[in-house]
Amino acid sequence: MAQPDVRNASAAAFTALSTSAAPSTQTSATGSPVPGSSVDIVSPELPHCLEEDWLHSTVVETHLPLLEMLFRLRGEGVPFRLTVDLSPTLLAMWRDRVLRRRTIAYLDRTLRLCRDEVERGDITGKRDLAVRYEASLHRLRSLYVDECQCDLVRAYADLRDSGHVELTASAATHGLLPLLMRVPESVQAQVRLGIRQYVQCFGRMPRGFWLPECAYAPAIGQILKREGIDWTLVEEHGLTTAPQASEAFPFTPGVTAEGLVVFGRDQASSSEIWNADEGFPGDGRYRDFFRDIGLEAPIEYLREYLGESGQRQFTGIKYYRIAREEDESLVYDPELASRALEEHSVRFIASRGAQLAALEAEGVENPLVVCAFDADLFGHWWYEGTEFLERLFRKAAQRSDFAFTTPGLHLASGQGLEFPAAAPVSSSWGEGGYFETWTSEENNWTNEEIQKRAEQLARFVKLYEDDRTGMPEGAATHRQRCIELMTKELLLAQSSDWAFLMKNEPSRGYAERRTREHLERFDQVRAVSARADAGGDLLSQIEEADPVYSDLPWNLYEPYA
């Protein structure tokens, strides 16, 4: 199908969506964190648990609607470009056969609940919504099972191969790389394993790399470039506050001394959607995420859906608009929400056109406006968000002054052009713009514990690398197995989502427990690593407890040169 030539457009913009391994740890459009957890285990003994349902709900509420929309646009010949990051742990879970079956079970369980809602006699005024939800779930189930064959990795690869989507790599377990840089082998391991997972899933090297929490520090650029990455993305102030920054930043990419191309995320366009007080998703005509029957319906009515635990949770079935002080019981009206979508998509497209035209008038050549968000904002937190994206793409296709593009396409279209030199400073998209969220009173202890074990592991790997050729085969095999397990447990402990959850009282205990579990398993493995005849049962138990990355390379923590 024909695609617009970005080089012929007077200006261009692109949208990037990132998906971490822990969909439940993100902040809602209204700024309210919701407790949840990372999902890094598969437990055959627990066919239904709350933590795992967060994974399935993200598939059902974000990725299937997004894929459905993108396939529809492609089928109709509507030109669009989108950059999507799928974190390595999310990819690992999507490829797991047990979790694929459980996603179907989650869909079927929700469909049964939705059927009950349709048949209930006491939901006058809401029945049409229940019917609408049921039809949508049937459609998404067919997309997942029949069209995608339960393989979302292949579905995204299909969109990449047709030239509509650029996929990026990311850090293995969503570690906050600047805080890991005190032991550079930790960043090296996060980057290498993330790239390795990408290659295993998509069959080629990635060009771009999404930094977890958009968190950058100068030394990270060298590691990314050395591992074969061409470009990354930082917050606007990471470029504009750097010494001798180009006046064109963040509307043109810069190049670091190592040759890494760095794009800057535009704050003005992002705030129209992301701002907790004034962003589009907070409009009172949209659906309220928090008014869910899983939190409000009688517990006995929900018993079959909730399973043995009986713990209340979100179901995705919601009947109310975003609450306003004057009336908290207004029923959600899809037609009213559609009018809001039209207003907001028109405003966003018009704003970008005016913004790009102004930049050109100021002398910025071929300016870019980079818009990047957590993927689960669309469809999950902001129920109408996926349709918002669709309207953006359709409206942009009717314009001749700008088009959507991706970083890789922009670099390819600018062959021979010289980008200004850049030396981005440390930054993130966390609260305050730096790393305070992950170095607070509640969670800073994790950084010291992780650093200590990273130093131990780096030394252990160096000794093994020096001595393994002279070791008896059994001893070498045992030592390598221990290294692989210590590496995995440390990677899992490094997830920035744990520290994020520790900032929130309802989920702090869970996050602390999970972090300590991974650190304790590291210590247990290290304790038996010196004796080939010890700890076999323990190692097997730990392997079964955390089956993710079962083929982990042993040398991720090899000495960083």
The 3D shape can be described as globular
**Helical region count?**
20
Q: Unreliable stretches, pLDDT < 50, 5 or more residues?
A: 1-10, 21-45
Number of domains: 2
Given the helix and strand composition, which structural class is it?
A: alpha/beta
Order of helices and strands: EHEHHHHEHHEHEHEEHHHHEHEHHHHHH
Radius of gyration: 24 Å
Q: How is the main sheet built?
A: 9 strands, mixed
Supply the CATH class of the largest domain: Alpha Beta
Distance between the termini: 46 Å
Compute the average pLDDT: 90
**Percent of residues in beta strands:** 5-15%
| Overall number of strands | 9
Helix content: 40-55%
CATH architecture group name of the largest domain = Alpha-Beta Barrel
CATH 4th-level superfamily of the largest domain? Glycoside hydrolase 38, N terminal domain
Description of the molecule:
Helix content is 49%, strand content 8%. The protein is α/β, with parallel strands linked by helices and 561 residues long. The protein has two domains: 6-433, Glycoside hydrolase 38, N terminal domain (7-stranded beta/alpha barrel), CATH 3.20.110.10; 444-545, Up-down Bundle (immunoglobulin/albumin-binding domain-like), CATH 1.20.1430. Strands 1, 2, 3, 4, 5, 6, 7, 8 and 9 form a nine-stranded mixed beta sheet that branches. The longest helix is centred in the middle third of the chain and has 28 residues, at 334-361. Mean pLDDT is 90; it is low at 1-10 and 21-45.
